[in-house]
Amino acid sequence: MKILYWKNIEKAYRKRHKTRVSKKIQEIRDFFNKPTALSIGAFDGPHLGHEKLFDTVLAEKKDGFLAGLVSFIQSPKMRSKKNFQGEISSLRLRTSFFEEKNFDFIILIDFSPKFSRMEGKLFLSILFFVSKTKFLAIGPDFRCGFQGRTGLKEIASLVKEKGIHLEVLDEFLVSGLGARSTKIREAVYVGDFETAQILLGRAYIFDLVSARKGKKIGLKKNVWQISAGKTSQVLPPEGSYRVKAHFADGSFLFASCIREAHFLRLELHEDSTENVVAISFGYR
Questions:
Q1: Quick one: CATH architecture of 2-172?
Q2: Is the pLDDT of residue 1 over 80?
């Protein structure tokens, strides 16, 4: 899966009439050598509702389309911090998930003050032109652009003008619950891993790649610890948890996890020479 960045997509658009461009811009032109099918969203924790969007986009590959996503490096809500418990998934875990789903590319946006002021029609026009978009799948409450001013009515008008097929999917219900990131985030925050797992379609996974290992911080060798301030992910309440510790080779061990006010600590019950890359809560 190719990872692209919005700043370079914008540059490619500005240089659209130039014959001589930088290597990076030429690579973007060469990559988008066929029409694309897209979905756009925060996707900060891919869940069963997102899966319907993903499957709709990926189905277009059979007709020769490139299948891609447009998302953010970090959730825009992280900037405000107000009533936002954290992201459901790290960028590393998200991109790995998308690659496993067989997407061809993802365009990542840095939600900067400049980007936040961009009108939705301009954003979409740049995106559609550079990526040769011919198919767009979005959720029923999707909005974009400055202050979310560009909604379904404006998007429908724009895609019709540009000859793009639009699919607006209904909200996906799981056990009577709407599959929404907000509900998953709130469930993890209060330690309701059962609800989180129902809506995610899998256990809640916490990224430990940036955690520090025991001996480096004066603890036992089979201990990993991460400061609460060093992660963008939502943390469960303080307490002790039985978790799965996942290694880079795909193997796992059962382990104990302690969540205290300022950190999360993992302790393996047996020796391992491998580094833990993630832990999962509320597994079945």
A1: 3-Layer(aba) Sandwich (3.40)
A2: yes
Q: Average pLDDT of the chain?
A: 92
The reported pTM is: 0.93
CA distance 233 to 89: 6
Q: What is the pLDDT of residue 284?
A: 47
| In contact, 282 and 204? CB cutoff 8 Å | yes
Residue with tokens 């590959």: 61
Portions of the chain given CATH number 3.40.50.620:
2-172
According to DSSP, residue 236 is labeled P
Q: What whole-number distance in Å separates Cα of residue 68 and Cα of residue 59?
A: 12
Task: Find the helix packing angle between 152-162 and 120-131, rounded to 10°.
Answer: 30
Kindly state the tokens that stand for 46. 């891919």
- Ranges of beta strands (E only) in 89-211 are 105-109, 133-138, 165-168, 173-174, 177-178, 204-207
Residues near 246 by beta carbon (within 8 Å), at least 6 away in sequence:
205, 252, 276, 277, 278, 279, 280
**Domain 204-281 sits in CATH 3.40.50:** no
Q: Where in the chain is the domain with CATH 2.40.10?
A: 204-281
CA 261, distance to chain mean position in Å, is 26
